[in-house]
Amino acid sequence: MSLVQMTATAEPATADKKQRKSGLGRYTRPALGLLLPLALAAGWEAVVHFHLASGRLVPPPSVIYATFAELAATGELQRNALATLARVAAGFGLGVVAGTFLGALTGYSGFMFRLLDPTLQALRAIPSIAWIPLFILWLGIFETSKVVLIAVGVFFPVYLGVTGAVASVDRKIVEVGRLFRLSGVGMVRRILLPAVLPSYVIALRSGLGLGWMFVVAAEFMGASEGLGFLLVDGQQLGKPAQIVAAIVAFAVIGKLTDWLIVLITAPFLRWEDRVRTDTVED
Amino acid sequence: MLTLDHVGKTYPNGVRALDGITLDVKPGEIVAIVGGSGCGKSTLLRAISGLDTPSQGRILIDGEPVTQPHEKIGMIFQEPRLLPWLTVAENVAFGMEHLPRRQRAARAAAALARVGLSEKANAWPRELSGGQAQRVAIARALVPQPEVLLLDEPFSALDAFTRADLQDHLLDLWADLRPILILVTHDVDEAVVLADRIMVMRPQPGRIYEEITSELPRPRDRQSAAFDFVKRRVLAALDRSLAKPATVDDTQTTSSQGAALWW
After folding, report:
1. How many domains does chain B divide into?
2. What is the SS3 assignment for B105-127?
3. Under an 8 A CB cutoff, do B85 and A271 touch?
């Protein structure tokens, strides 16, 4: 038996992925997604510019941009965005820690699952906004109640993702760990964590999305600063451009933070066997 | 030395999967276990590996009882079971966490070279063909230098050409350190090519029905008359093992229908 014979077995195809990334496609494909919003914006701008509509309630892009620039110049935008970001960060952190811990616990132990999961699922069925009056009574109208509300919103998708992922780790892979006599810690670190990471990232991203949703609800219930405050303020003072500017800020920061999660975790997920390689950086 | 002493396995639902399996395997011996489906072949292998515990009897390796996975026992499954988040080289090095990094890398590289996959060291498992992945699994199992290597239908998911290739390759690797090989297989050819002893099991409860020793010289010629003779003996034993007790006729050697249907 020679090695030459051994190496003669089939080589799988890996070249096509590289090919798809090269050339013009790399720049034109992302640009394609910009076509529709840009066309709509330019169209509305033209409509207002030629006085076909007043644009008072639906401000054209130029007015929104001017408002945005003005808010940024006075430092209003940064101050409010930072306040919102801080709330989301605190709530997200709390929600992720709690969701990960309880999710791992119920995913790993069937007993804990039967003990805790029904209660948690029942709590999940409550629309989280319904907690607001209670949280205000319990925790006051300031930061604590807002952060807790966001944490509640983040908790459930993270919990669901983690418990499902841990419970469905492939028994066959776990057996490999057992054969190599991994300790409990070793099993978690070398088998369970890497195995659940792809679903964990998805859980974190959906948790963060809900975090951004709940921060608006939290800021609606009374805040003196924050992007949500800009929304309420814009409504009460009849400044639609400020509302849209705040919405745009939400979109940008939300997208950036989501992208940050993807960026940070991407190096750990390079091994994934994806159907579409182009969804990684969306 | 691997000893099975009246090993039995009864599942909680009362099904007796194994009963009174007694077997001594000398160092360097290759034992194949064949038998109809549900005769407990894989259950037996999992008990030896320590992944499952037998309900009766004892399994000893060099006099030490095996109650959980043991450092002297390695195992290869039907699927390669490579960890998808580790590169090929990291997969091979998986069982050597206790060694310093450099030594680990050197041993993994040597093992990969031995299975002819050095150029795949930094590839992900998903980039390998089935045969390549199984060779990586073999390298991973052999790198801690086990005294016993268990193989649970290791090549059954591969095409015939790759399978024959890997059987030869396995023997080649075995010759380095001569561990005990215990091979569960559905493939009579595979058993005859590899094994010194072929244990034919019969189901309900799983027990050893017949033992066939094969002293064919290695490398074995799959086309030779002697090979064919051993193969016929195994097929005949399988045939008898599946027959109803009342109709067992030990003088009859082959039945073409049984040979085709035994699995």
Report:
1. 1
2. HHHHHHHHHHCCCHHHCCCCHHH
3. yes
